[in-house]
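User: Fold this, then the next.

Assistant: Folding the first:
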Amino acid sequence: MAQTLLMTKAMPLGDMVFIIVAFLLLMVILKKVAYGPLTKVLDQRADKINKDLDDAQQKSEDAASLVEQRQKELSESKNQASQMIETAKKSAQAQSDSLIQAANTQVAGMRQSAQEDAVQMKNDAMNTAKKDVADLSVTIASKLIQKELSADDQRALIDAYLAELGQQ
């Protein structure tokens, strides 16, 4: 056993060179055959992941921009709707005021017309009353005097009578 230990400890230089050359040759072959394609695939995968992340970030920024744009449009739409409602309210109020003014004018005209009609009816009633009183007075006077008065005399008598009544 002691001999085997000594042999393992002292390896001939040729064997050592052979092992080192074999190891280096194996490393070169592994680099060409395994590590090269493996690192190429890993680099491609890393590039694809980075590209996907960049695309996702860009899409996220685009989505945020789109959300902001939609919010602005919604706000503008709300403002336009509020303005339209305010304009409609003002228009309705103006139209209401106009209708009320027209109705008030019409009522005032009707009131004026009614007053004029009332004055006219009063005058007509007074004239009719005067005529009736005159006819009645003439009839009474005719019966009292037993003679017929002329129309002018009758009117003069009536006017004098009415003047007396108006003074009293």
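Now the next one, as you asked:
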Amino acid sequence: MGFRRWSAAMMVCAASVGTAQTAPPAGAPANATRPAFAPPPPMRVWAPKKTPYADYKAPNRPWWKLSDVLALHKGEKSWSQPIVRNKDIVADWHQIAPGQATPELAYSDNRTGIIVWDGEITVTLAGQPPFAARKGFEIDIPFRVPFTLQTVGDRPALYFEIHAASDMPLYPVETTRSRPKPVDGFVYEERLAVGPPGQFDAMNRPYLDYFKEVVEGGARAGAFIAAQHMFVNNIRGRAVPTPPASNLGHYHIGYDEFWFVMEGNVDLQVEGVPTFTASPGDVISAAQGRWHRASFGGPEGQMGTRVAVNPYPAGLHGYTVESGGRQ
């Protein structure tokens, strides 16, 4: 297909996004709708493939097992563990002890994604009623909206937090006792922050109780956050035999991608890394430019969910010509 024909197909596709509608996302208000999307035919191009492919620089790993993270912090009640550091996204595990709370803060320009994995947390967002979040809750915090997280009960709360790499925390003067310490070459100064906060609407809600609404309730999995610099997408399916190594999957030209294993098992093949099977709570990743292929493993037919995270809701996927644009 020539470039002009491909561009025309893209415009037709874009027009359909603005008109056709499908069922609402999981847990959205009954009157909410999600635009339909029909991707255009693949465009045959000379695509850049990073060579040598990008390395994994600490703390990044192809496979962060949750068991390894917990072992690193055995005996600690409150801790943080860096997991992902790339030019677009940062993500960390955090645990807060019973009765403790995070300081009130907001993030400057991008949404924050949180997945609660153990214990229970009271989430307080400016302008919203507080709510309790437990294992499997996905939380969407808009930019410039102050929030706090506090444990409930006698168990520590464990959660995974995702940010755009460029974001810096803002601390409200009214609730911050002293000037925050300098960090990463920045010093904090008292200023007036001008700019509207991010909003919730039918397509952006404070939280998704994934296990209750999707796993037990049968709601459709799908994108939870699809915003500038932040794409958090629930991908759910049944376990299948691991595809042959000749199935390379795809690669991304300009960014890393990682996945949080929410349910079941995920087989991941990444260029330069032996294929492995990850379990719930594990975080797995493909560095920029590496071929990668994810599939649901475990007993055939078992349901699995991987939460894909990258900076581009409409990011480009590069496939082999032989694959026809399919993984």
